[in-house]
Amino acid sequence: MALIGAFYEALGRADYAAMERCYHPEVSYGDPIFQEVEGRDRVMAMWRLQLGVRDGLRSDYGAVTADDRTGTAHWTVRYVFSSTGREVVNEVDVLFRFEDGLIVRHHDDFDFKRWSRMALGRPHGLIFGWTPMWRKTIRDRATRELDKLT
């Protein structure tokens, strides 16, 4: 549980070096937008990208459970989505898998439709947020931005 706490404390400070120390070199990350990101360098680039489009990030985490192999947490993150200037409060359920005392798998799960409505507003988020085509558009855009960094 200390590892999960250390990760979220570092994330709250945007302390990339401390976040990176929590990750195994072979870490994989997934969420509804960045479906699968492989390797510590690419995962850290993804965090730099995500934190770069969020202004005034504030976060809280809790409901942490963990043993030597797996862990879970709930993360609430509040920020202004810089592309639209809209406030987002995202509720995220997190699953972790550990190897060699580090996070080797990190998966965030949240309601994409709800996020889309908050981050993008009308008409895009409200009308299209639930459609597979819109999800693909958002995912493709995020992947292109990540590819530019790696």
TrEMBL record:
Keywords, ordered alphabetically: Isomerase
Taxonomic path: Bacteria, Bacillati, Actinomycetota, Actinomycetes, Streptosporangiales
Signal sequence interval, chain numbering: none
Domain of life: Bacteria
GO molecular function: isomerase activity
Protein name: Ketosteroid isomerase
Residues of the SnoaL-like domain: 6-106
